[in-house]
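Practice set, problem 2.
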Amino acid sequence: MNYLNIFLQAAEGGGIAQFLPLIAIIAVFWLFFLRPQAKKQKEETKFRSQLVKGAKVVTTSGIHGKVVDLNDADSYLILEVDGGRFKIEKSAISKELSAQYMPKEEKGGKKKK
């Protein structure tokens, strides 16, 4: 008997069984890529909405400075850097500098030897 005839007579796998691998791939993509990105975006939005005057921040371009003025209506802030001031968008703020990232002379006022 010819094997080709046997293969041609085999029943088709129809219905949902054909779509299960596709559904599984979409679920894995959502769990590992889309969900964490949405969570990170939500945290960044919350952080930017809680900015206050006097906070030391870093912009996305790497500029370190202190927030001098906030304008929530137009979504911008004034950042002071070494005596100069920049008007930048809130979305350009990357992170806040906490005490652990500051150099020792800025934390305690005196430099340790």
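Problem 2, part (b): a different protein.
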Amino acid sequence: MNHFFQEQVLPMLHKLLPYGELGPRVEVRQTPNHVVVLAEVPGLRHPEHLDVRVQSTMITIRGEVTRELPEKEGDDLFYSERMYGKFSRSVPLPVAVVPDRVEASYQDGMLRVKMPKDSLQPGTHVPVDFS
């Protein structure tokens, strides 16, 4: 069911709803040691316009895209498909990560967040020393 929602429903909603309704489009990848999230967030001009928070199994990306040029009296916008305003997107991660060791970068409208996997996954047996 979750796979169907991500593969079929979300792409359709992204086409129909404004930017702020669903937030940026994301891609979540796994390497042997990391989870990497790529998010499309074009138009950010200042670091304070972006807030990334990571919990062990969730990433939340919030921000605000502002107009590059303020509207002046007499300006008449003919047509625009650009998205402006606040956005927020929370995405579940496929495995637990270590939030304290997350690295993030922003370049050319793409946010890249690299998170090391937590070696103690839920359900992992932990030996207990009874000394």
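Answer key, part (b): Helices lie at 2-16, 19-22. The chain has two helices and seven strands.
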